[in-house]
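Sync notes, pocket subgroup
Present: LS, DG
LS reminded everyone that the earlier model was apo-only. Rerun requested with flavin mononucleotide included. Inputs:
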Amino acid sequence: MIHNSTIDTQLNHKSIRKFKDITLNHEQLETLYTVFSRTATSMFMQNASLLHITDEAKKQKIQELCGQKYVGAEGDLFIFIVDLYRNQQIRKQLNKDDGRVHTTDIFFQAMEDTLLAFQNVANAVESMDLGYVPLGTINDH
Ligand SMILES: Cc1cc2nc3c(=O)[nH]c(=O)nc-3n(C[C@H](O)[C@H](O)[C@H](O)COP(=O)(O)O)c2cc1C
């Protein structure tokens, strides 16, 4: 079996649910945003968006919605969004909103874009010796 730093990082993955009370610095954030935006994307539509939740009241609300105490408790909280809205708005503003980016097919492409971007960022996080836990509970509401 081949071992290199990428593969070893992937093989050592485990979800982390308790974090130090430290947030990411500018360089770490910039790196993660760049990795996010360099992910392969169906038809180059970049139908994914990334929210970094820093407002404490919003974090609290999200924690309540998720029903998991560790959500946003320490560290950083991100929401990966399957985002058809941005491209729909761009097309609207250009008077080119012909419904083409409102289809189920585009929705699934957007899901694929978002999941790939998530995993790419997650791998980058672990390669920086940091931890994360994906939170599906955000979708329950
Ligand atoms: C789509 C998805 C949603 C998840 N949602 C949650 C969640 O809401 N809360 C949680 O504690 N873990 C969540 N997890 C983490 C899984 O529980 C975890 O990945 C799984 O138990 C395997 O453990 P590992 O990541 O340490 O290998 C989620 C994982 C995925 C892929």
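DG: Strands lie at 48-53, 77-82.
LS: The pocket of flavin mononucleotide is lined by residues 13-15, 17, 68, 133-137 (CB under 6 Å).
Action: DG to write up.
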